[in-house]
Amino acid sequence: HCVSVFVTMAVLPLHSTRHSSHQGNSSFQQSYRKGREKVLLLLVFIAFLLVCFGAFGFVPDMFERSRVKVTTLPSRSGNVREAPGVVDRPHIPKDEVDGGHDAAEDKVDSHKEEEPPVTNAIDVELDTLDKESPQYRRLFIKKMARHAWKGYEEFAWGENELKPVSKRGHSASVFGTTHMGATIVDSLDTLFLMGMHEELHRARQWVTEELNFDQDAFVSTFEMTIRFVGGLLSTYALTHDKAYKDKAVEIASKLMPAYGSVTGIPYSLVHLRRGEGKNWNWSPGRASILAEVGTMQLEMAYLSELTGDKVYHEKAHAARDALFKADRPDGLYYNYISPNNGNWGKKHVSLGALGDSFYEYLLKAWLQTNKADTVAREKYDDAIEAIGKRLVAKAENDPMKLVYVKEMLNGREVAKMDHLACFAGGMFALGSLNAPDEHRKLTYMQLGKDLTETCHESYARSASKLGPETFHFTASVAAKGTAPRQRYYIQRPEVIESYFYLWRLTKDQKYRDWGWEAAQAIEKHCRVEHGYSGIKDVDAVPVVHDDVQQSFLLAETFKYLFLLFSDDDLLPLDKWVFNTEAHPLPVLKGMPA
Fold first, then answer.
1. In a 3-state reduction of DSSP, which class is residue 186?
2. How many CB atoms lie within 10 A of CB 128?
3. Contact at 8 Å (CB) between 277 and 270?
């Protein structure tokens, strides 16, 4: 525009083309008038030059305003102690880092105008991939995780969880009355593994500046251990960022009063400010819970190794020893135990709710210590043998003869499984490695395969292709929820967790296919505008949403799906052990049992 104005003014005459109506004016007046017109036109011309060429002085600033500014992510500082036994950071495939960008490209400064959303970049890359390939499916899972995170960040930042339909925060009873960003802490390692570094940067900033454990509330000792301590320690192991370790020490110290019973059996709840412990009101006889008592060892052992403070390891192992001392005439562990005298309470046995992760941690404590904790392995094998004799059954009336694990209540067998018990397929398969003898090696692996198939059928036989919370085995049905109150789906990870382990250990393609089926069902029935919601009945389609996005959707379900479609060198099983919230912790070389 400036050039055209310059050319135009150069060729136009510098006097008015209008003729004066006063023919008798003198030549002096005409000359004066023409001169004045020339001056005015020159002034206009100069003004145009100033505007046009002066604008070029602002061009660099204009470009600067639209340029993406990068800042470095928190790096591993020189004074951070190398995590004992930690291998190098896991290999992150380049196509998984920020929609195909290299991991060295750092986060976008939130104060600058951003480039088009990264989700679009993911969509573009998805269009270039074979939809049957693991690369496509892995990237699609990342897209799902980004959608879940975006909704949480927009509508529930700092709250424990998200209500994606009503677009506000949510907090389950396990978090008391606190607002401690459970989804943020639970998702840290997922964000890292998926290459979502911009989101991780904001999450880290919140953890270091806003996360406050000085809360006037009772919280679940178990949930705080597996989600908060586990999540922070895992992210430290992956990033070597001391800030995460410091926060883990802070919350673990707040949990220590829970171990203050005369037996060393921890209380289910601890008051973060007052340092008081107590058990759930609903627990028979106010007993402690087997799964809670026996699911602290991995986190506390690693924390002691990092800090050199043995108290964490000693407290957790004293609790486990109390369980070993309790009388077990049938070889089974019951789900309720008194913190006052160490005696069993209600005679309920389950690989699902209340019992599940106790068995998991026996096996994984052995793996975490580089197989030095032989007591844990022996107790695991003994427990599994008792379960195999008393509780493993086959649905004889079902055409597939599905294998399942019953529960036992006061000596009576109950032919049902919880979704929570579906982790056992992966556990049995993992336990087949280095089993005491060839017979148990084959038995464990086959049981793992059979249970995983049964849990897959609980999904395949529902209308939504998502599994119910509880499913029964009767003369007329198998692997089906028999009442509406049993058929809800709250984004649990256990079935997909077993697919992950069975894929890693067998390389049978069906486990990846089953995982993709589950991912598609979640996308179809759980996705809402601002995240993912659980559903109230897996057999009622169209579904009714429960309006809760659980923190473990990002911590576990999406992580296991992502790993299912990743190569084995991303968190290899001989170097990492997953806690019961899917937070990977390193195998510790030379750690005493």
1. helix
2. 10
3. yes
Token pair 């070029």 is found at 56
CB 340 within 8 A of CB 263: yes
In this predicted model, what pLDDT tens digit does every residue of 350-374 receive, in sequence order? 999 999 999 999 999 999 999 999 9
- According to DSSP, the residues that pair with 584 across neighbouring strands are 578
Query: 530, exposed or middle or buried, with CB in 10 Å at 0-12, 13-18, 19+?
Result: buried
Written in H, E and C, the secondary structure of 267-296 is: CCEEECCCCCEECCCCCHHHCEEHHHHCCC
| Long-range contacts from 94-101, C-beta under 8 angstroms, 24+ separation | 95/125, 95/135, 95/139, 96/138, 96/139, 96/142, 96/194, 96/195, 96/566, 97/195, 97/197, 98/195, 98/196, 98/197, 98/198, 99/124, 99/125, 100/125
- Mean pLDDT within 567-592: 93
- The per-residue pLDDT for range 418-453, each reduced to its tens digit, is 999 999 999 999 999 989 999 999 999 999 999 999
The predicted model gives 29-41 an average pLDDT of: 50
The residue written with tokens 């060198």 in the block is 569
Give the integer Cα–Cα distance in Å for 447 and 392: 9
Whole-prediction pTM: 0.82
Angle between helices 424-431 and 356-368 (to 10 degrees): 30
Residues carrying an active site annotation:
469
User: What is the C-alpha separation between 543 and 401, in angstroms, rounded?
Assistant: 30
Helix 242-255 to helix 197-209 angle, to the nearest 10 degrees? Answer: 50
CA nearest to 416, candidates 471, 486, 490: 471
20-34, 464-478, 516-530: range with lowest mean pLDDT: 20-34
Q: Report the C-alpha dihedral over residues 484, 486, 489, 495, rounded to 10 degrees.
A: -140
Please state, in angstroms and rounded to a whole number, the distance separating the CA atoms of residues 457 and 499: 13
| Dihedral angle of Cα 496, 502, 507, 512, to the nearest 10 degrees | -10
Single-letter residue type at 528:
V
CB distance 393 to 406 below 8 Å: yes
Token pair for 443? 């038995």
CA angle 355, 356, 360 (to 5 degrees): 125
